[in-house]
Amino acid sequence: MMSTMHEGTKYLTIGEVADRLGISAPTLRYWEERGLLRPAARQSGRRLYGATELRRIALIRIWQESGMLSLDEIATVLAGRTETGHWRETVHGRLAAIDEQIDRLGRARVYLVHYLDCPRDRPAEECPVVHREVDAYLDA
Questions:
Q1: What CATH number does residue 29 fall under?
Q2: 69: how many CB neighbours lie within 10 A of its CB?
Q3: For residue 133, what pLDDT is reported?
Q4: What are the pLDDT digits (tens) for 110-134?
Q5: What keyword terms does UniProt attach to this protein (predicted)?
Q6: Residues 63/72, Cβ–Cβ less than 8 Å
Q7: Which residues contact 112 (CB under 8 A, 6 or more apart)?
Q8: For residue 140, what are the domain limits?
Q9: Residues 26-65: tens digit of each pLDDT
Q10: 107 and 63 within one domain
Q11: How far apart, in whole angstroms, are the C-alpha atoms of residue 29 and residue 17?
Q12: Are residues 70 and 94 in the same domain?
């Protein structure tokens, strides 16, 4: 890795960060445009990132890859308390959405397990449990 020394501190160029963390340079520039990230320094017009920025990038990736937070939510959490809101509200909202998704997935799992366990060859057409589920859906 071709690290750059800048005022005694070790920095990585945008390309080095992209290679190291498996993120494209355009993505890093986009995050900068969105206010999620700022280079620690610039040298001859090149963005330079230090340890603090690498940790921030890693955190953004963790939140994004897990599907835990959208970029807008990440921006809010990183901003902390602002005039228009508080990061805790964003996290509470995301937790509620995750709980709802867990509930839906649990119901889907029960339903699909029943399909696998159903002795009928065509459960969609022949299974009385499936018929009751469909009727309940239609009545709702």
A1: 1.10.1660.10
A2: 19
A3: 87
A4: 989 988 999 988 988 899 988 998 9
A5: DNA-binding
A6: no
A7: none
A8: 87-140
A9: 999 999 999 999 999 999 999 999 999 999 999 999 998 8
A10: no
A11: 12
A12: no
Binning pLDDT at 50, 70 and 90, where does residue 6 land?
Answer: low
Same-domain check for residues 93 and 47: no
Contacts of 3 (CB under 8 A, 6+ apart): 10, 11, 12, 16
Q: Of 19, 23, 54, whose CA–CA distance to 39 is shortest? A: 54
Is there a single domain that holds both residue 4 and residue 40?
yes
> For the chain, how many structural domains are there in total?
2
pLDDT value at residue 9 = 74
User: 93 and 24: one domain?
Assistant: no
Sequence-ordered list of residues with C-beta below 8 angstroms from that of 80, at least 6 positions apart, any chain: 86, 87
pLDDT at residue number 100: 95
pTM across the whole model = 0.71
Residues 96, 53 within the same domain: no
* Both structure tokens of 35: 């206010």
